[in-house]
């Protein structure tokens, strides 16, 4: 039963796709100019449709000699199986291999030709019809391996023109052609307008993987162009609507928001497990609002930061494809979460969402641009880009859209690099007080990794937290301090005491970073200065010896006798001297005490006795009391 429901869901998904506004689609084939330069009988200009894989040379041209193989004329097998090689010899024109349409994928034909040494491929149509774009098949593991590695350009030509080329080659003529992409992209002025039709779904297979890799690689170049005012970039997202008869079905409810108005296929194509199509629509809408809010703050390039960080931090595989993870990325980039939420509106409302409504309207082609039917799609100056989404190729396409002599410097250099850590610290963790950051600038952009500071490894997610852990700083490069080793002795100015300074060790002087010079303790008289001492300076220290039978004590910078008996005699003599001194002091103190006490007692006794019994040596004291009574 579940299998039947899943199949019904998939059928509905295709039904939604087919009944979307694309039912009246106008598909425009992007062309490049093909000019035959010889022989004279077929010389002239012809149309060809650019293949949507490989690397078209936008803004340039290339010439070559056309060869039609005698075997494997459809190119569905490897040419080496037939002993055929088309590698150019020195001094000869590159080989443009002509193959017939049919029996296998366009991309496989080009891949086999590339392996055989061809520089470009012309595919002759097998029916009389208007030119179409050669697109890549729905990739599986086997096709992904060669599609990603196709680096040569290719083009589809009409059946009649193909027959003309074959006839001329069979008659022995040398057929030379020139492929020209210089007018494939309009170049009216000094600013290029381009847009990328993308998707937030990271579980749609090889194409999604290639798209995510492209956004990471191209971010730096895109931001340089945008910050310099050279380009105007706009992201877009494809959505479909659910037919009104199915809006209440389980399938539409799981794939759509706003009552079936905006839908996306189920990521796993299984309605019973994992994320739903409406989760993808919701995140697509959030990314559109991130661009809108960032654009209002005059920082539209922040979209590239959000998209790449969301891919890294919030993948479906890790079950983090949700609002909470998205909000943490938004906050780390300094964007307003509330404004973005207000922009997204109410997904349950039975009414149109203005942001997504504009996206559906934009899918319909205008002017020289056809309807957007291929995902991803890049549009440069209102012309759809054809070829592999690769940094160098896309940059060439954008640069070909500038009016001549107005190209920015980045278009004239193959080295594109920008320090994204200078803008809001790249959205990474930082400690302003300690001047620490997890932002690391790279050629492709920047990464948020907790730093290694003075030997101390910080650990965390690099975006919101980084905490110190691990061994001390001196274990890695000596903490950036001076260090040197001689004769088996090593010294360093780094101290593992929790500080960050460099200090020369004892015995040295200097700044501790670049130099620490040996101190001559002997010459500067900082040690070994006792009368019996003899000083000799060494690197980082000194040697001190004593004369005669003496021993040097470094802690006290003195010499003492090595003989144990003499030491004991001296010690006992000192003890006896101390004891005798104490005894003499005690005796003296006792005699003084005894004399003073005795003198005092004698004076007191004499005073008392004088009152009651006069002494012989004392005159009689008159008795005034008796006289008064008489």
Order of strands, widest sheet? 1-2-6-5-4-3-7
Relative helix content: 25-40%
Distance between the termini: 157 Å
Rg, Å, rounded = 48 Å
Which class best fits the helix and strand makeup?
Answer: alpha+beta
Q: What is the 3D shape? A: elongated
Percentage of β-strand residues:
15-25%
Number of helices: 14
What does this structure look like?
The protein is of the alpha+beta class and 630 residues long. It is built from 14 helices and 28 strands. The protein has a 7-stranded mixed beta barrel. α7 runs antiparallel to α8 (302-313), α7 (277-296) crosses α10 (337-344) and α8 (302-313) packs across α9 (323-332). The protein is elongated. The N and C termini lie far apart (157 Å). Mean pLDDT is 81; it is low at 1-25 and 617-630.
């Amino acid at each position: 039963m579940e299998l039947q429901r899943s199949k019904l869901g998939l059928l509905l998904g295709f039904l939604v796709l087919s009944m979307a506004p694309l039912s009246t689609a106008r598909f425009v084939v992007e062309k490049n100019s093909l000019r035959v330069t010889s022989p004279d009988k077929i010389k002239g200009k012809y149309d060809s449709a650019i293949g949507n894989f490989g690397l078209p040379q936008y803004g340039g041209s290339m010439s070559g000699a056309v060869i039609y193989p005698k075997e494997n004329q459809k190119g569905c097998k490897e040419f080496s199986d037939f002993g055929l090689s088309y590698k150019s010899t020195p001094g000869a024109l590159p080989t443009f291999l002509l193959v017939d349409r049919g029996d296998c994928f366009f991309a496989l034909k080009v891949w086999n030709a590339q392996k055989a040494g061809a520089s470009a491929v012309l595919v002759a149509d097998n029916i009389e019809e208007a030119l179409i774009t050669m697109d890549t098949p729905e990739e599986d593991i086997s096709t992904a391996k060669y599609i990603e590695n196709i680096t040569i350009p290719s083009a589809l030509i009409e059946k009649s023109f193909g027959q003309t080329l074959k006839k001329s080659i069979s008659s022995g003529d040398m057929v030379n052609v020139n492929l020209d992409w210089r007018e494939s992209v309009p170049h009216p002025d000094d600013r290029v307008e381009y847009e990328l039709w993308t998707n937030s779904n990271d579980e749609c297979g090889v194409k999604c993987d290639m798209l995510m890799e492209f956004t990471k690689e191209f971010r730096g170049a895109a931001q340089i162009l945008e910050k310099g005012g050279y380009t105007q970039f706009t992201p877009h997202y494809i959505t479909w609507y659910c037919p009104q008869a199915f809006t209440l079905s389980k399938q539409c409810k799981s794939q759509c928001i706003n009552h079936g108005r905006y839908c996306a296929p189920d990521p796993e194509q299984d309605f019973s497990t994992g994320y739903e199509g409406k989760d993808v629509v919701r995140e697509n809408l959030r990314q559109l609002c991130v661009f809108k809010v960032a654009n209002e703050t005059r920082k539209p390039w922040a979209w590239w930061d959000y998209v790449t960080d969301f891919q890294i931090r919030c993948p479906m595989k890790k079950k983090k494809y949700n609002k909470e993870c998205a909000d943490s990325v938004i906050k780390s980039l300094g964007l307003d979460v509330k404004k973005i939420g207000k922009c997204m509106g109410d997904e349950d409302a039975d009414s149109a969402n203005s942001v997504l409504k504009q996206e559906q309207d934009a899918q319909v082609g205008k002017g020289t641009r056809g309807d957007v039917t291929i995902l991803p799609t890049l549009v440069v100056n209102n012309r759809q880009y054809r070829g592999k989404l690769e940094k160098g190729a896309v940059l060439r396409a954008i640069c070909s859209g500038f009016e001549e002599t107005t190209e920015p410097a980045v278009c004239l250099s193959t080295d594109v690099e920008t320090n994204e850590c200078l803008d809001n610290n790249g959205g990474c963790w930082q400690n302003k007080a300690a001047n620490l950051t997890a932002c690391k600038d790279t050629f492709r952009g920047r990464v948020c990794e907790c730093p290694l500071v003075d030997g101390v490894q910080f650990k965390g997610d690099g975006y919101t937290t980084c905490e110190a852990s691990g061994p001390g700083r001196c274990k890695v490069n000596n903490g950036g301090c001076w260090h040197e080793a001689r004769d088996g002795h090593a010294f360093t100015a780094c101290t593992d005491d929790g500080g960050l300074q460099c200090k020369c060790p004892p015995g040295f002087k200097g700044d501790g970073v670049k130099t620490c010079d040996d101190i001559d303790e002997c010459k500067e008289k900082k040690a070994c200065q006792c009368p019996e001492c003899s000083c000799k300076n060494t690197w980082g220290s000194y040697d001190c010896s004593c004369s005669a039978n003496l021993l040097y004590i470094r802690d006290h910078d003195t010499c003492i006798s090595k003989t144990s008996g003499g030491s004991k005699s001296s010690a006992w003599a000192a003890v006896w001297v101390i004891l005798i001194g104490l005894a003499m002091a005690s005796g003296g103190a006792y005699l003084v005490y005894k004399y003073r006490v005795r003198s005092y007692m004698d004076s007191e006794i004499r005073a008392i006795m004088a009152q009651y019994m006069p002494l012989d040596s004392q005159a009689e004291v008159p008795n005034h009391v008796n006289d008064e009574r008489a």
